[in-house]
Amino acid sequence: ADTKVYRASTTAPVNIAVVKYWGKRDTKLNLPTNSSLSVTLSQSDLRTLTTASCSALFPASEGDSLLLNGAPSDVSGARTQACFRELRARRASLEAADPSLPKLSTLPLRLVSENNFPTAAGLASSAAGFAAFVRAIADLYELPASPSELSLIARQGSGSACRSLFGGYVAWRMGAQENGGDSTADQVAEASHWPEMRALILVASAAKKGVSSTSGMQQTVATSGLFKERIATVVPANMAAMEKAIAERDFEVFGEVTMRDSNSFHATCADTYPPIFYMNDVSRAAIRAVEAINAAAGRTVAAYTFDAGPNAVVYYLEKDTEAVVGSFYHVLGGVDGWKTAAIGGLKPLLALD
Ligand code: PMV
Asked: What is the ipTM of this complex?
C-alpha cells in the first residue's frame, strides 16, 4: 500500500482593489456584477503561506481539515467545498487518463495556513487565504492549470481571491457566461512596470467588520438605486481610465480614479435600506488628511481607498514618501482614534512586489 505523505506549500499575496468588486450576479458561483482591478501587495509584508498534504495514512473519518493560524477552521462552508470539489475533479480526470498516477483525489486533505501579518491589522485575508489554499492543492495534485484557471477556482472561494493569483496590477473580468467559465483574472501589468508604487495601510480598527461582504453586497444589489448607475456606467468608465493610467504610469489619474471608485462603492452602501456604513470618523479623518496632503503638494500624491471596513489603504509613489508618510504622522497624530491604533501594529510602509 502507498503510505507516502504527499505535500506541497505555496504563498499568496494580499491585493487591494482600486476599482472595487461589489455585487454578485450569481451567489453560488461568486459571479460579479462588475469587473474590478487591484494592486498586489508585497509578499514580504503581507501573505498567506499554506501547506496541503494528503496520505492514505490520514484516517478517512477525519475528512478534510484546515488549521488557520494554529486554530482548527471550519471547511464545511459551500465556498470552501466548491474549491475542494473543483480541484478533486481535475485530479480525478488526470488519474483516469493515467492509471500509473497515485490516487490522491480520494484521500482526505490536510491544510495548514499562516498569515505573516497580525490579525490586528484588521485586513480581510480571504483573498490571500483562498488563493494560497487553491494553489497549494493544485500543486499537490500536480494539475497543469494556468493561473487564470486557478483564478476561476479561487473565485468560488472568495471573489477577490481570484486576483491574488497574480502579482502587479490585476483585472478580474466579470465575464458573460452563465457557468462563470470566463469570469477570471488576468495581469494588466507587472509590478516592475511601475516600481515606484507604494501602499500605506492605516489601521482605524482591528475589529472584525460589522456587515460581511456577502450580505453587504446582497443588500446593495437588492435595495440601492445608485448601485444600478455604478455598474452600468461608473465602473466601466473607471476600469477603462484605470487601465490607461497604469499603462501610462499616470499617478494623477490613477489616484483620482482610485478615490472616486472607493467613494462610489461606499455611496452605494449608504444608499441601501437600511444603510450600511463601513467607514467611521477615523476613516473620514484619513480622507481629509489625504486631501490636505494633496492640496499642500499642489497635485495628487496620495490616494485613499477603503474596503468593507474602516481601515485606509493609501497609494503613493516612492518619491513622495516624505510628503505622504511624514504628513500622516503629523496630521493624524492629533486625531482621536489614530493616537493608539493608527499606523502602529503594522509596518506603515509596504513596498509592492
Ligand atoms: O472577496 P470578498 O467577497 O471578500 O469581497 C471583497 C470586496 C471588497 O474588498 C470590498 C472589494 C474588492 O474588490 O476587493
From this structure: 0.99
> 311 in ligand 1 pocket by Cβ < 6 Å?
no
Q: Buried b / exposed e across 4-28, counting CB within 10 Å, b at 16+?
A: eebebebbbbbbbbbbbbbbbbeee
Q: Which atom of ligand 1 is nearest to the CA of 214?
A: 3
Pocket flag, ligand 1, residue 238 (CB < 6 Å): no
Question: Cell triple for residue 53?
Answer: 498534504
- What is the position in ligand 1's atom list of the atom closest to the CA of 124? 4
Give the CATH number of domain 5-191; options: 3.30.230.10, 3.40.50.720, 3.40.50.620, 3.40.190.10: 3.30.230.10
Tell me the pLDDT tens digit for each residue of 65-88: 999 999 999 999 999 999 999 999
CA–CA gap between residue 222 and residue 23 (Å, rounded): 10
| pTM of the entire predicted model | 0.93
Query: CATH number of 197-351: 3.40.50.300, 3.30.70.890, 3.30.56.10, 3.40.640.10?
Result: 3.30.70.890
